[in-house]
Write a structure and sequence with these properties.
With 164 residues, this protein is mostly helical. It has seven helices and no strands. The chain has one domain.
Length: 164
């Protein structure tokens, strides 16, 4: 019947909208670094997680890991690959008390993997660790291929909402 949408048509439209949202979030993530370089706080979790954000009491396991990373960076200097790799190792090994915190920690892990650092070999290692974890989870059917974009988009939205 003309003008009448089938379930398949509706599913395609919903899928297209979802993909457009993911694309918009990806573009926004690419546009965010200049604001961060100018010192804009970008809090993504608790009192310590996010660029230019860190002070106050530790609220949970993820916040504690973020604080330790921040303290490492203070000692070693900005863009230190060793601090990032230690942080990623901690996030990867931690048993998270719930799925919400586990997903947030995974997003922080993935964004740290993408963050530049001073040693090209260290940066390659960070990216390879996160990429292999993502590929494993997709291959095992644990998550769809776009799950990483959803996680990073969620961090971006939270950071923008809480940023100053």
């Amino acid at each position: 019947m003309p003008g009448r949408k089938t379930l398949d048509d509706r599913a395609r439209v919903a899928q297209d909208r979802t993909m457009l949202k993911r694309l918009a979030l990806l573009i926004a993530l690419v546009a965010a670094p200049p604001a961060l370089a100018q010192g804009m706080a970008f809090p993504v979790h608790g009192n310590w997680c996010g660029p230019n954000h860190g002070a106050g009491p530790v609220l949970d396991l993820l916040d504690a890991a973020c604080m330790r990373h921040d303290m490492c960076v203070v000692q070693a200097g900005p863009l230190d690959c060793g601090c990032d790799l230690a942080f990623m190792g901690e996030l990867r090994a931690q048993g998270w008390p719930n799925l919400v915190l586990a997903a947030k920690a995974r997003a922080v892990y993935e964004i740290i993997a993408l963050a530049p650092c001073t040693d090209p070999d260290g940066h390659r290692l960070k990216v390879n660790l996160a990429a292999s974890d993502w590929a494993r989870d997709v291959a095992l059917g644990v998550e769809p291929p776009w799950a990483v974009l959803d996680r990073l988009g969620g961090l971006f939205v939270e950071g923008m909402a809480r940023g100053h």
